[in-house]
TrEMBL record:
Residues 325-577 form the FAD-binding FR-type domain. Residues 197-219 are annotated as: Disordered. Residues 198-217 have a biased composition (Low complexity). The lineage of its organism: Eukaryota, Fungi, Dikarya, Ascomycota, Pezizomycotina. This is Uncharacterized protein. InterPro entries: CysJ-like_FAD-binding, FAD-bd_FR_type, Flavdoxin-like, Flavodoxin/NO_synth, Flavoprot_Pyr_Nucl_cyt_Rdtase, Flavoprotein-like_sf, FNR_nucleotide-bd, NADPH_Cyt_P450_Rdtase_alpha. Residues 21-166 form the Flavodoxin-like domain. The keyword NADP applies. Keywords: FAD, Flavoprotein, FMN, NADP, Oxidoreductase. GO terms for molecular function: flavin adenine dinucleotide binding; FMN binding; oxidoreductase activity.
Length: 759
């Protein structure tokens, strides 16, 4: 069996001697990886011999071999390096490298991806850059820091940055007169090889698909002189606008569209800033009803509730077990919805049994921090078939393939895998298409109008249009290919074009006895709490995340591959002494998962310390997870904050907006004006931060006893508001005299262990 997950480097022979570039990325969810691929293509067009790989796929010594190295990394956790860059980072930080100037021959540039709502904005890129410079590396171009919070997300910074970078590369590494850069309208050579097995021949003749031309000219096959029919002229006139709407069966009237356009013009979109200070709600007397940039309505999701589910359950994906390294086979023994059927969100508790050998157990026992279970979703057969039909791949879809090289993360038995198998198990055909993907499609249609529309999406200056067509409605790759019916991708290019399905990591939500004691046959129980991503987008199309759809219909009895690993956090209960420390836990939504595991783990120890749990959810009746379980723990007090149960909060527990709009900011007793502002600001809201202030004396009492403090749940405002409330509680309970002291006290690890996991 040839597992093909490791061979990811894309290289092509150098056209010009002595020009080589490595693009090394660290990426959790694929954004940095996409940018690295784009930069790699840019370098290939400038005739650099190019290698694109994750940082951990590279040795430090290899880095010195390239003329140029571009680092692209996102930041994860709390200012942490992504997992696939950790090994590289650890190597780089070795003490013995200090003062050696060992990277003096390295010329590099760095682009970071981050989100400025996090305190440690772009820290991974900043740390990496500082260390590279410390070790003598030379930065040949200014660093770039992309921010998810910008109107067009990372692209707002990335696109101009990459254009300037290209200019710098051209200036620093001029091509000989006889060599020209490869123009954008000429396809690059394929990176991965996918061929039919020599013995197999299609049952019917292969479809005639426009394949990438080998000469640098692109044919425009549409007859320019042919008279255009009325609808064709309309089509051309509206171009991308019609593309954006073309799949809506009942397009809005002009008046409706004008209203919608007006509304959009007047809404700050993404609506983060409007939400951040509550200005929209105050000015309009109604909630923000635009989507955030991921199109996920965190504030008012019920507006986009899906209609009651249709009784038809699609044929589920085949249960083939892929050769994924370092994984175990897990049996699904439970898959239950834990929220009521009329609640807006389907949250599931999935229970797995995993057989572990004594060696596995030993490895797992060395895992520090909370445990994470990674699962690899699959595509549904009907989606795969639709793509096969759209691309005219019917004749080859079930023939055995010869796969000589493939991207990292494609786990496939190389002998005899079929295209249908790859599309089902490995390629993310329902992902939102990235710019790189759309750019490549231009080469695979002969329809001039389609070419024009596709080019328009990728042209600099059209980011908003691209965003409106792809991310905003979360259009899938299949939908895009439906819109552009003339696009016929040769099957050989499938590995080059489609993104790879990534494993999705979930916090394990059980701990203690289940994880320590096997059932019969050395089977251990692991549970996760998964909030399924299902909503309607701005264009009212129902959407489901790939993994959500997969988990929703994952039948009991199915075997799946899972990876068990540790979260980035510290070990919280690794000894009886640790278990005796007090715990202040704050969780919202499914952020309760790792906290429950910690509470269960502590309960195994005699004399487990006192625990205060502040849990934020919407309604007592809908999403107060594990409600019946909490009374079983003797040292646990739970304060649930039901944000939608119309509980009027105690004015003493809320505070007025500070200049950042992030909530409380007081260091002494509240004055009447503060109270009035506070009540108006937070009227009818009941969040965890309010309860922390309300129970400040109890919080303070535990704070005095060297507690563990955990915050888990939604990213964005929650962690900031919670931190402020904890600082306030320190002042109110008299642990410290004022806010400045509270800041210092809270940041001192001698006073507490702090762990935060937000997403
Ligand atoms: C769990 C989580 C933690 C994050 N932590 C940070 C952070 O500490 N600082 C930051 O600037 N961005 C942070 N981000 C934002 C990511 O860096 C950003 O979304 C980036 O585009 C992700 O790129 P990737 O898909 O390559 O990992 C975090 C995102 C997630 C989901």
């Amino acid at each position: 069996m040839g597992e093909a997950g490791g061979s990811s480097r894309d290289t092509q022979p150098p056209s010009v001697e002595g020009r080589s570039m490595a693009v090394l990325y660290g990426s959790e969810t694929g954004n940095a990886e996409d940018i690295a691929a784009e930069l790699g293509n840019m370098a290939r067009r400038l005739h650099f011999q190019t290698t694109v790989d994750e940082m951990d796929g590279f040795k430090l010594a290899d880095v010195l071999r390239a003329s140029l190295v571009i680092f692209v990394t996102s930041t994860t956790g709390q200012g942490d390096m992504p997992k696939n860059a950790l090994k590289f980072w650890r190597n780089l930080r070795r003490e013995k490298l200090n003062n050696t100037n060992c990277l003096r021959s390295l010329r590099f540039a760095i682009f970071g991806l981050g989100d400025s709502s996090y305190l440690k904005f772009n820290w991974a890129a900043r740390k990496l850059r500082a260390r590279l410079l410390q070790l003598g590396a030379i930065e040949f171009f200014r660093p770039g820091e992309g921010d998810e919070r910008h109107d067009n997300g990372i692209d707002s910074i990335y696109l101009p940055w990459s254009q300037e970078l290209k200019a710098a590369m051209v200036a620093d590494y001029p091509l000989p007169d006889s060599v020209r850069p490869i123009p954008d309208d000429v396809p690059l050579a394929p990176k991965y090889s996918l061929e039919l097995m020599p013995s197999s021949s299609p049952t019917s003749s292969l479809p005639s698909t426009p394949s990438a031309p080998s000469t640098p000219t692109v044919r425009m096959d549409v007859d320019e002189a042919a008279p255009r029919a009325e609808d064709e002229r309309m089509f051309l006139a509206s171009r991308t606008k019609s593309a954006a709407r073309s799949h809506i069966s009942n397009p809005p009237s002009a008046a409706e569209q004008a209203r919608e356009d007006w509304r959009r013009l007047n809404v700050t979109f993404p609506a983060h800033s409007a939400r951040a200070d509550g200005s929209w709600e105050r000015a309009n007397g109604r909630p923000v009803d635009s989507l955030d940039k991921d199109n996920i309505l965190t504030d008012h999701p019920e507006k986009y509730l899906l209609e009651p589910e249709s009784p038809r359950i699609p044929a589920t994906p085949p249960a083939d077990l892929l050769p994924i390294p370092d994984t175990k086979v897990a049996m699904v023994v439970g898959n239950d919805r834990v929220t009521p059927p009329d609640h807006w969100q389907d949250v599931r508790r999935l229970v797995f049994h995993v057989q572990l050998t004594p060696r596995d157990r030993q490895v797992l026992s060395q895992i520090s921090g909370e445990m994470v279970l990674t699962i690899w979703p699959k595509n549904y057969p009907e989606d795969v078939q639709e793509l096969i039909t759209l691309m005219d791949w019917g004749a080859v879809a079930d023939l055995p393939l010869e796969i000589k090289s493939c991207p990292r993360g494609v786990f496939v038995d190389r002998s005899g895998a079929t295209l249908r198998h790859l599309l089902t198990h490995n390629l993310d055909i329902t992902a939102v298409p990235k710019r790189n993907f759309i750019r490549e499609l231009i080469f695979f249609t002969n329809d001039k109008r389609e070419k024009e529309r596709l080019m328009e999406f990728t042209r600099a200056g059209n980011e908003q249009e691209f965003y409106d067509y792809t991310c905003r409605p979360r259009r899938t790759i299949i939908e895009l290919l439906r819109d552009f019916a003339g696009v016929k991708i040769p099957f050989r290019r499938a590995l080059d074009l489609f993104p790879v399905i990534r494993g999705r990591a979930y916090s394990v939500c059980n701990g203690g006895i289940d994880l320590k004691t096997p059932r019969e046959d050395d089977r251990f129980t692991f549970e996760i709490l998964a909030a399924l991503v299902e909503y309607k987008t701005i264009i009212r199309k129902p959407r489901q995340g790939l993994c959500s759809r997969y988990l929703k219909h994952l039948a009991v009895g199915t075997e799946v591959r899972v990876k068990l690993s540790s979260s980035s956090g510290p070990a919280l209960v690794d000894s009886p002494a640790e278990a005796r420390r007090p715990l202040i836990a704050i969780a919202t939504g499914t952020g309760i998962a790792p906290i429950r595991a910690v509470i269960q783990e502590r309960a195994q120890h005699r004399g487990a310390g006192d625990t205060l749990l502040f849990f934020g959810c919407r309604n007592r009746s809908a999403d107060f997870y594990f409600e019946r379980e909490w009374p079983l723990y003797p040292n646990l007090i739970v304060y649930p904050a039901f944000s939608r149960d119309n509980i009027v909060p105690d004015p003493r527990t809320v505070a007025g907006p500070d200049q950042n709009g992030t909530g409380a900011d007081f260091s002494g007793p509240l004055r009447p004006d503060d109270i009035l502002a506070a009540v108006q600001y937070d009227a009818n809201k009941n969040y965890v931060q309010h309860l922390i202030r309300k129970h400040a004396e109890e919080v303070g009492a535990l704070m005095r006893r060297h507690p563990i403090v955990c915050v888990c749940g939604n990213a964005g405002r929650m962690p900031i508001s919670v931190r402020r409330a904890l600082l306030d509680a320190l002042v109110i309970s008299g642990v410290v005299a004022n806010k400045d002291e509270a800041e210092k006290w809270f940041s001192n690890p001698e006073n507490l262990t702090f762990w935060q996991e937000v997403w």
